[in-house]
Amino acid sequence: MLDTTKKRIKFSELVDVASLQALMDSFNQVIGIANAIIDVDGIVITSSGWQDVCVKYHRVNPTTCGRCIASDTSLVESMLNGAPFAVYGCLNGLVDTAAPIVVDGQHVANVFTGQFFTAPPDLDFFRRQAQEFGFDENGYLEAVDKVPVIPGERVEAITQFYANFARVLATNGLDRLRHHDAENRLALLNRELTQRVQERTAELLEKNLQLLRDEEVLRESQSTLTALFESMSSGAVVYRASADGQDFVVASVNRAAERIENMRRKNLVGKNVVEIFPGIEEFGLLDVFKRVWQSGEPEQVPVAFYQDGRISGWRENYVYKLPSGELVSIYDDVTEKLQAEQELRWSEERFRSMFEMSPLGMILNSMDGRFVEANSASLDMLGYSLDELNKMSYWDITPLEYKEEEAQQLESLSRFSRYGPYEKEYINREGIRFPVRLNGVLITASDGEKFIWSIVENITEKKKSEELIWRQANFDTLTGLPNRRMFRDRLEQEIKKAHRANLPMALMFIDLDKFKEVNDTLGHDMGDILLVEAARRIVECVRESDTVARIGGDEFTVILSELEDAASIDRIAQSIIGKLAAPFLLAEDKIFISASLGITLYPNDATVIDSLLKNADQAMYAAKARGRNRYSYFTPALQQAAEARMRLTNDLRGALENNQFKVYFQPIVDLGSNSIHKAEALIRWEHPVRGLVSPAEFIPLAEETGMIVEIGDWVFREAARQAKRLREMHHPDFQISVNKSPIQFCNNDSPYQSWFGYLQELGLPGQSISIEITEGLLMDATPHVYDKLGAFHDAGIQVSLDDFGTGYSSLSYLKKFDIDYLKIDQAFVRNLSKDTDDMALCEAIIVMAHKLGLKVIAEGVETREQEELLAAAGCDYIQGYLISRPVPPEEFEALLMQRLR
After folding, report:
1. For residues 490 and 496, is the Cβ–Cβ distance under 8 A?
2. Where is the PAS domain (predicted)?
3. For 761-782, what is the mean pLDDT?
């Protein structure tokens, strides 16, 4: 066996790197997967087609780079554990694979493949990932688009192909290593045998035995012969023959023979040759000894040697006869040489198997176009047998219109010894043309004849897949309209056209009003039908040259290009609004929705895509704010309002951390006892620059951004601490009301469960807190909302229905949910006087609530007359400026103390 312990194997020294690079490039072009061979020191031996999605994006972002390193580590660990092939699937659907190259027990290199998908990628997922990691969205999606999609049924064949390829590289590397070693050893052996044995040993033995008579000279000569004899690297054994030349006994051996035989000299001398070589007669060595003794002519013969009754190696014996009549056998271990030759034969057989089993077509042509060889995949692709193909020319399967392109590929072949990748068509046995992709290299045989080896891939399905991927990437699968990506491309092209023609262009942004209610009530299937019909109606309102796109959810855009008549914008907008306001028939239901539409103009309002989109979006929200079912043009005032809103939102993000929020308290008076045992907690924002900011201004922003959850949790804890203080200082049953936004109720991450624990931590019962909700929450109540209300009830926390009478009032909601208080909205109290409609409504609400076992709180009480009328009507509690405005905690406590005096 090879001794590689003293020197580490370098894979780059065992291969023709240039040829291997050409082969890897061919595999990349044919299979469509990037690949590389990298040695264990990280040195890239070959690399072909590595995608930007890895190099340009993932390996430059700390988070994604960490995932790439984890992928590499996982692959290498799998290979170190002996896996013939390792596959790693990233969270984002990308797949990496690797196969180890092991030469003579050493892991010297790895065959890596670049990323590929096993199914068309979810582009929305990659779009969100680009936003998450700060990648350039368009560039990133273009890079993702270049990553090949390999159908699942092909992945196993391709991974097996690369595993086989890695084994072939390992085997060929070992073959070359062994072949070099065997050649060196054989060359050395031949030189030693020729120079030392034939020229030195036989000559010196013969001359000295004949000429040297003097004993002293003989001893000196013997000493020289012994030194030469002992210094030989090959084994040498001198045999003394019997008188009849039939038996041969060992007379002397050198050190190399001791090592090879693994026996001491004293145990070898005197033994018959048959004892040293079991099976000597089987391999004819004894006959060789007899012939050489008889004729005096040297001979050569290989002989096997045994270990534990089995052949464990081979020796090549050179047998000579000395003038003294003795025989000398000079031999060496040629096991490795024979093994190398056997391995070479096996390697050729394995390469033939790989050739035949490859899922890719492989064809060998002569330079004049004759078919010489083709594997099974090629024959199946073309429908011919190999015998039939051998009688044909390349042009029998190639359409004539490709002659010019074929000439260009042959020119490339003559200049660079390779051609492709090159897409064309073949004609199969049935005369059907189908697309193929070709890569080829020029091969020169030992006799100098040249051949073209081509790798052929049938790309029919790939073409279909590419078309499908392109449509999925650029068109909305539901409506068939261009998606956001295609829309941006179209908008960019239309801006260029408008600029060249010096004509205006309009961009419309359309949002369907109340579409969410359709989804929630009728289901997403009906919602999808509505979207398809809405898209059709919008398309009917515009010209064929205009672009209608769906950019997400219930949002559509329209590009009105090269407008010669600006008045047409209003006509189209009115037409869209009118058509979308017409009823939609969904199954047996007639559904009414409307649309809010924003319009911006190029170049008057903006000249770049993002600015135009932002303008149209702002104009759409302006239309929605004005009552929906209308359209609005963009104005600079909208931009200014949006910027102010953005600045306030940014300031809001740091308000909690910078202790800018305060909780004020407004007392609630019990009309029966004229006492104050209740109060409402109200948040205030003391902005460092703007001063006190109205909750009506910042609460909607907090709800839109989701910050209301964290802010609401802070308000609850502040209110709970104040309730504990007031219960200790003022009244043991004091209760604080806390407003809870519908966003907090609907958010699964709402920390309301921790509220119960916080009350226990403070030693407060649930009755110390009341939660105020709006009627809108009950209107859209989900099982999740119902469960939360039930949890509050079980914890003893009471619930107030705020602003009652202004929303979707319904007795069924009051019966279904655990409500404790109704709060009459100040809109009914503000103008309250005797014998008015407001008075009648208040009386009716109070009577209804008491019948249902609910208490009533009237908000916005500002006069004594209002207080007296409400008391006479049986109202339980009042709240308003008559008693106090919302005040800070210390002023609230002072108010309570003053009222006690």
Report:
1. no
2. 347-389
3. 82
List, for residues 70-82, the tens digit of each pLDDT value: 777 777 777 777 7
535-552 pLDDT per residue, tens: 999 999 999 999 999 999
Return the SS3 of 253.
Answer: strand
Q: Which helix (H) or strand (E) holds 237?
A: strand 235-241
Placement of tokens 């008549």 in the chain: 565
How far is 553 from 184, CA to CA, in rounded Å?
74
Can you tell me the distance from the alpha carbon of 701 to that of 425, in angstroms, rounded to the nearest whole number? 61
pTM: 0.42
Rounded CA-CA distance 327/162 in Å is 55
Q: Which of 348-362, 602-616, 710-724, 788-802 has the lowest mean pLDDT?
A: 348-362
In order of 724, 737, 771, 887, the CA distances from 677 in angstroms are 13, 11, 16, 16
The pair of structure tokens assigned to 606 is: 């903006």
Amino acid at 144: V
Beta bridge partners of 680: 666, 737
Report the C-alpha gap between 420 and 756 in whole angstroms. Answer: 71
> SS in 3 state form for 488-540?
HHHHHHHHHHHHHHCCCEEEEEEEEECHHHHHHHHCHHHHHHHHHHHHHHHHH
Q: Are strands 821-824 and 855-859 parallel, antiparallel or unpaired?
A: parallel
In the 8-state DSSP scheme, what is residue 475? B
Q: How far apart are the first and last CA of the chain?
A: 108
d(CA 699, CA 781): 21
pLDDT of residue 213: 44
Distance, in Å, from the CA atom of 97 to the CA atom of 569, rounded to the nearest integer, reads 55
Cβ 390 vs Cβ 371: under 8 Å:
yes
For residue 244 the two structure tokens come to: 């009849």
CA distance 717 to 706: 18
Find residue 303's DSSP bridge partners.
315
Contacts for 710 with CB less than 8 Å, ≥ 6 apart: 656
Cα dihedral: 517, 520, 525, 526 (round 10) = -40
Domains, in order of start, for the chain: 11-181 (3.30.450), 232-340 (3.30.450.20), 358-460 (3.30.450.20), 475-634 (3.30.70.270), 652-900 (3.20.20.450)
